[in-house]
Design a protein that fits this description.
By secondary structure, the chain is an all-beta fold. It has strands at residues 14-18, 24-28, 64-67, 78-86, 94-98, 105-109, 113-115. A hairpin with a 5-residue loop joins strand 1 and strand 2 (24-28).
């Protein structure tokens, strides 16, 4: 019970509830807002009120794309085919791409690819 504090409630905040033995037991009344509660209205609209277009992949599976060469990743530039659309990584979409000149696939960010 560390961090919890017990408080006493006024007798008027308790409701009577019947027990199995026929006697009446008192339990806290939590049916309404707490005494002294303040209703706060948010200044920003809720997500139900604002509709933003859902982001979608720029490239389709089977599409031929070019990748910008990057020495830091040892990625040769050239023509690649999109083999799979990967989910959004929090910043942008990613794709699995395959070159006819390489036996393996690579993962590339959408910002690294251009239409060929």
């Amino acid at each position: 019970m560390s961090g919890l504090r017990r408080t006493r409630r006024a007798a008027s905040t308790y409701k009577a509830s019947p027990s199995l033995t026929g006697t009446v037991a008192l339990r806290p009344d939590f049916s309404g807002p707490p005494k002294g509660a303040v209703k706060v209205q948010c200044a920003t609209p809720s997500s139900a009120e604002v509709e933003e277009p859902m982001a979608s992949h720029k490239f389709k599976i089977g599409e031929i794309v070019a990748i910008r060469p990057a020495l830091s990743r040892n990625v040769p530039g050239g023509v690649y085919e999109v083999t799979k659309q990967l989910p959004h990584n929090g910043r942008e979409f990613e794709y699995r791409i395959k070159s006819v000149n390489e036996p393996h696939e690579r993962v590339a960010r959408e910002s690294e690819l251009t239409r060929n």
